[in-house]
Amino acid sequence: MQASARLLLCGALCVGSGAAAAQSSVTLYGIIDTGLEYVSHANAAGKGLFRMPSVTGELPSRWGLRGNEDLGGGYSAIFTLESGFNVRNGEQGQGGRLFGRQAFVGIKSPYGTVSFGRQYTMTYLALMGADLIGPDIYGLGSLDAYVPNARADNSVTYLGSYAGVTLGANYSFGRDSAGTGNSPGQGTCTGSVAGNATQCREWSVMLKYDTPLFGVAASYEEQRGGSTAAANFFDGLAPTPLTSAADKDVRTHVSAYANLGKFKLGAGWLNRRVEPSAVTIADVRSNLFFVGAAYTVTPAFIVDGEVYHITNRDHDTRATMGTLRTTYLLSKRTAVYAQGSYLANSAKAAYSVSGGGGGTTPAPGTGQTGVMVGLRHSF
């Protein structure tokens, strides 16, 4: 009996030891960012607007849960649930989705990470190094609102890094299954459709190379149409219907950045091609260029800015926008900032300087000024 008891005790201890070795963690995190904004010529009558933006300031507000469990042998299970919200009234972002920013589970290994769910596409991830202003209210999203909202439902993603080289790919069986749209004016696209694997499909690939001094990146993304989908170029003209699975909305991007002491420089090009299958609907193409710089005056004070230029020959629309931003860190988690931007539209264009939630479209050919002061806290 004593020998049997010893064996049972040893077994229990071994099981307990194995359970203790499998470590897991869950982290609650988030950003709250808001402020006051003024936009000139915010409607066709040329009236200005004071407001608290609903979508973003320096960064979109969000909260999330991130988990990791060590499975041993260099493998771990991961998950992320991330919800966007609007500070001015507390409503949920991304069309009211509970976890509209990200919702995925995956396995991380020495060979890369494979994950499943609602995730960022490679367009968003590839731009992160060179686009210094990022998802700011006066950033790339003012000229192409899809860029800071580049996510896909029903998505399988792979990310792997090897000696500074990052490879990425995602494939979505139905890019917008909740029917809330991923960017304004794009219409909606169903999820997976029985008997039509191409409808509402999305896929993208990315190649990056990063060093402490510089980095380069390229990406390609293709979206297919669906019965209620559309392609909006955000220039004031009507969106192009993409109601067939044969319709394509393609974005190709190349960018680079360099770290020069206290300076960081970034530049890039984003080409977009909308190719409807119907011969009665014309193809539309645009080219968006950007160049930016950031200077760390002190560890607590940063000045950065970016210049953007977009051309759309098929719509005969063009715009140039310049943004200047200053950020002062009150602590590691809290910062105050002030920023301003001016956008010049061509005669037929009606791009808006502000990506703060719509409602600021000027008359065609009218320039706009946007100014914002804000407060950002991370937790």
Automatic annotation (TrEMBL):
Protein name: Putative porin
GO CC annotation, single: cell outer membrane
Compartments it resides in: Cell outer membrane
UniProt cross-references to InterPro entries, sorted A to Z: Gram-neg_bact_OMP, Gram_neg_porin_domain, Porin_dom_sf
Cross-referenced CDD domains: gram_neg_porins
Porin domain ranges (all copies): 12-346
Subunit structure, interactors included: Homotrimer.
Leader peptide range in chain numbering: 1-22
Topology in the lipid bilayer: Multi-pass membrane protein
Keyword line: Cell outer membrane, Ion transport, Membrane, Porin, Signal, Transmembrane, Transmembrane beta strand, Transport
Gene3D superfamilies: Porin
GO MF annotations in UniProt: porin activity
Coiled coil: none
First-listed, main subcellular location of the protein, grouped into a coarse class: membrane
BP terms from Gene Ontology: monoatomic ion transport
